[in-house]
Write a structure and sequence with these properties.
The chain contains three helices and five strands. The protein is α+β, with helices and mostly antiparallel strands and about 100 residues long. The longest helix is centred in the first third of the chain and has 15 residues, at about 15-30.
Amino acid sequence: MSISTTVCGLISSDDDLYKKHSKVLLACIEAEIKELPKETALYFNSKYPNEGLLEEKLTVELKTCSFNKENESIIEVIISEIPKGVYKIRFANSY
């Protein structure tokens, strides 16, 4: 049996930057605006308003380094590259 580990960072929905861009995104959806303002589009990595972006932004991929050493499987999180707003790191094992 093998095991797979994934690592992700979690951003709080109470994060000021997240709240700011969430309001803009929701306003664009409500007003049926076809493209997000540049700053909000960069934040969500999409120029098109979509409510699914709200949930997607709460989980971010983290830069990691993985290697095996003797009887160990090691995963290191690159601390200097953790995005601003990440308040929690999640390690998930799949069997």
